[in-house]
UniProtKB/TrEMBL annotation:
<dbReference type="InterPro" id="IPR004652">
    <property type="entry name" value="DusB-like"/>
</dbReference>
<keyword id="KW-0288">FMN</keyword>
<dbReference type="InterPro" id="IPR018517">
    <property type="entry name" value="tRNA_hU_synthase_CS"/>
</dbReference>
<feature type="compositionally biased region" description="Polar residues">
    <location>
        <begin position="1"/>
        <end position="18"/>
    </location>
</feature>
<keyword id="KW-0819">tRNA processing</keyword>
<dbReference type="GO" id="GO:0017150">
    <property type="term" value="F:tRNA dihydrouridine synthase activity"/>
</dbReference>
<keyword id="KW-0694">RNA-binding</keyword>
<comment type="similarity">
    <text>Belongs to the dus family.</text>
</comment>
<dbReference type="InterPro" id="IPR024036">
    <property type="entry name" value="tRNA-dHydroUridine_Synthase_C"/>
</dbReference>
<dbReference type="GO" id="GO:0050660">
    <property type="term" value="F:flavin adenine dinucleotide binding"/>
</dbReference>
<feature type="region of interest" description="Disordered">
    <location>
        <begin position="1"/>
        <end position="21"/>
    </location>
</feature>
<keyword id="KW-0820">tRNA-binding</keyword>
<feature type="domain" description="DUS-like FMN-binding">
    <location>
        <begin position="52"/>
        <end position="356"/>
    </location>
</feature>
<protein>
    <recommendedName>
        <fullName>tRNA-dihydrouridine synthase</fullName>
        <ecNumber>1.3.1.-</ecNumber>
    </recommendedName>
</protein>
<keyword id="KW-0285">Flavoprotein</keyword>
<dbReference type="GO" id="GO:0000049">
    <property type="term" value="F:tRNA binding"/>
</dbReference>
<feature type="binding site">
    <location>
        <position position="207"/>
    </location>
    <ligand>
        <name>FMN</name>
    </ligand>
</feature>
């Protein structure tokens, strides 16, 4: 089955015209003026201040294609790439596979060894990366016990050495994505961020949680505001951006230069585009209907099958369950989609759900 067999949900389908009744809170003029300005990351100019975060196991080429359709100017990120693995592998890993027309795109790397990261950054630039992002926020034990991800918050000397080495290795901007600290009693976001800027980082994305929080609790936007006030490079706010309203609220509270969407995009590749459109125009796109979301899910499934075969079907299960929500009998569909073995099975389930919704 080919992806061409489904009529894609296009930007036009999800209307770009805001209709009366879809205007909720207005966009404050001062914010709107700021958001219409291009975002400058050193010598790179972005025409959107809304970014799609790196999400391991999610933001592969297929997912990015869907996000890109609705957010043509936003910076997208690959899943994080292990610099150590890259050093030992003969061929490039699938997570570094990017389409020739994907720009602007950033490749995110993780490790704690400056030389490995510098080498990986050169390969990433050869692949077409517009920026190199260093992961200094991942909380997963497997990564932190080897000195990577958020453990760099406790080892600023190494973090500085990494940024310096990568800056020396490539001419594209080097950026850092990190958290506000290791734990509640070790919040060092401002100092750490200043050290990254001094080492040569050209943008900093801050997830407003500590490593100890994982993904729990509320993101501390007040900490992001402190970092924004302390740096001269752009600061991107991340954490709990689940809607247009939360993006606006976060930008107002933090005065950040942009926002990065993460879990809000799971099963909802429309989010980055929705926020971007509102920030630029002050108008809201119509929210996709359940039928449109399911059409997108079907397309996502078929694209994963085309790209990764059976492995893609296994990966599709979680995506499908994220799409199947907020309509009648969604839980039942979710359960079934979590067990699909073939692309046909998934398409049949989605088609029947769409038919039921059409006749309801
Ligand atoms: C499934 C999943 C995978 C993630 N993978 C990455 C990753 O590869 N690199 C990274 O910097 N952050 C990763 N994150 C963290 C997110 O990019 C983001 O910082 C975090 O989810 C906070 O934003 P949120 O509250 O809007 O979800 C991941 C998060 C999730 C839930």
């Amino acid at each position: 089955m080919s992806v061409n067999t489904v009529a894609p949900t296009t930007q036009k389908d999800i209307s770009t015209d805001a209709s009366p009744g879809h205007h909720l809170s207005a966009l404050p003029e001062a914010l709107s003026a700021r958001m219409r300005l291009p975002l400058k990351i050193s010598n790179l100019t972005l025409n959107s201040r809304v970014l799609q975060s790196p999400l391991s196991g999610v933001t592969d080429k297929v997912f990015r294609r869907l996000v890109r359709r609705y957010a043509p100017q936003s910076m997208l990120y690959t899943e994080m790439v292990s610099a150590a693995e890259l050093h030992h592998l003969k061929k490039l890993p699938e997570v570094m596979d990017i389409d020739p027309d994907e720009q602007p795109i950033s490749i995110q790397l993780f490790d704690c060894r400056p030389a490995f990261l510098a080498e990986a950054a050169r390969k990433a630039v050869d692949q077409g990366a517009d920026t190199i992002d260093i992961n200094m926020g991942c909380p997963v034990n497997k990564i932190t016990k080897n000195g990577g991800g958020s453990s760099l918050l406790r080892d600023p000397e190494t973090a500085i050495a990494i940024v310096k080495a990568v800056c020396q290795a490539v001419s594209v901007p080097v950026t850092v994505k990190t958290r506000i600290g290791w734990s509640d009693d070790a919040i060092n976001a401002v100092e750490f961020a200043q050290q990254m800027e001094a080492a040569g980082a050209k943008m900093l994305t801050l997830h407003g949680r500590t490593r100890a929080q994982g993904y729990n609790g509320i993101a501390r936007w007040d900490q992001i505001a402190k970092v924004k006030a302390a740096l001269t490079i752009p600061v991107i706010a991340n954490g709990d951006i689940f809607s247009v309203d939360s993006a606006v609220q976060c930008l107002l509270e933090t005065q950040a230069d942009g926002v990065m969407c993460s879990r809000g995009t799971l099963g909802y590749p429309f989010l980055v585009g929705e926020i971007d459109y509102f920030l630029k125009t002050g108008d809201r796109k119509l929210t996709p209907t359940a039928i449109q979301r399911l059409q997108c899910a079907k397309e996502h499934l078929i694209m994963l099958w085309d790209y990764k075969g059976l492995r893609g079907i296994r990966q599709a299960r979680k995506h499908m369950s994220w799409y199947a929500k907020d309509f009648e009998n969604a839980a039942d569909l979710r359960d079934r989609l979590c067990q699909i073995e073939t692309v046909e099975q998934g398409c049949e389930l989605i088609d029947s759900a769409i038919s039921r919704l059409k006749t309801a």
